[in-house]
């Protein structure tokens, strides 16, 4: 386990990076951003704080980072964990692993809500098409944003 310090606006990891490590925030706040490749550019997915983990999803399944993590405070301190560190925590501190699982569950719930928003936008579009009604500007903007994410992921 290695302690690392980051200054405000310093990138901890970038979207697309190989995930060789995960991190636990010791102090400070970290913003998580995804580049949707649309006019709005980077979208804030959330802010993580002391005790939160970041980069664990990609670390656990050995995939590329899906977002960028940026230090938001004048000093952010994180614990960088490699696979051996993670295995040690699983054996010696199972409560820490439970905390990580709880955080992942919270993120899944948020994704479920986001998925529901996408489904609602699609249904709104379908109804407008079916009834030959104009699509609202708000609907079209949401669809452009959602489709940009799909294009980026494929």
Q: Proportion of β residues? A: 25-35%
**Spatial strand sequence of the major β-sheet:** 1-8-3-6
State the helicity in percent bands: 40-55%
What does the average pLDDT come to? 89
| Name of the CATH homologous superfamily | Jelly Rolls
At the first level of CATH, what is the class? Mainly Beta
- Give the end-to-end Cα distance, rounded to a whole number of Å: 34 Å
| Total number of strands | 8
Order of helices and strands: EEEEEEHEEHHH
Radius of gyration: 18 Å
| Domain module count | 1
**Low-pLDDT segments:** none
Level-2 CATH architecture: Sandwich
SS summary, helix count: 4
CATH topology: Jelly Rolls
How does the helix and strand content classify structurally?
A: alpha+beta
Can you tell me about this structure?
There is one protein chain. This protein is of the alpha+beta class. Helix content is 45%, strand content 27%. It has helices at 56-61, 83-92, 94-130, 137-153, and strands spanning 2-7, 11-13, 22-27, 30-35, 42-48, 53-54, 68-71, 75-81. A 4-stranded antiparallel beta sheet has the order 1-8-3-6. Strands 2-7-4-5 form a 4-stranded antiparallel beta sheet, with no helix packed on it. α3 (94-130) crosses α4. The chain starts with a strand and ends with a helix.
Topology:
Elements: E1 2-7, E2 11-13, E3 22-27, E4 30-35, E5 42-48, E6 53-54, H1 56-61, E7 68-71, E8 75-81, H2 83-92, H3 94-130, H4 137-153
Antiparallel strand pairs: 1-8, 2-7, 3-6, 3-8, 4-5, 4-7
Helix pairs in contact: 3-4
């Amino acid at each position: 386990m290695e302690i690392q310090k980051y200054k405000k606006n310093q990138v901890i990891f970038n979207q697309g990076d190989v995930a060789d490590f995960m991190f636990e925030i010791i102090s400070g706040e970290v913003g998580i951003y995804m580049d949707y490749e649309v006019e709005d550019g980077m979208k804030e997915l959330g802010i993580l704080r002391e005790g939160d983990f970041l980069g664990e999803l990609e670390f656990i399944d050995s995939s590329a980072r899906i977002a960028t993590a940026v230090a938001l405070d004048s000093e952010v301190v994180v614990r960088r964990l490699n696979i051996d560190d993670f295995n040690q925590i699983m054996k010696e501190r199972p409560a820490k692993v439970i905390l990580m699982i709880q955080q992942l569950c919270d993120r899944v719930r948020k994704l479920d809500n986001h998925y529901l928003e996408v489904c609602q936008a699609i249904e709104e579009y379908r109804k407008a098409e079916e009834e030959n009604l104009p699509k609202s500007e708000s609907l079209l903007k949401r669809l452009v944003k959602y489709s940009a994410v799909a294009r980026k992921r494929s």
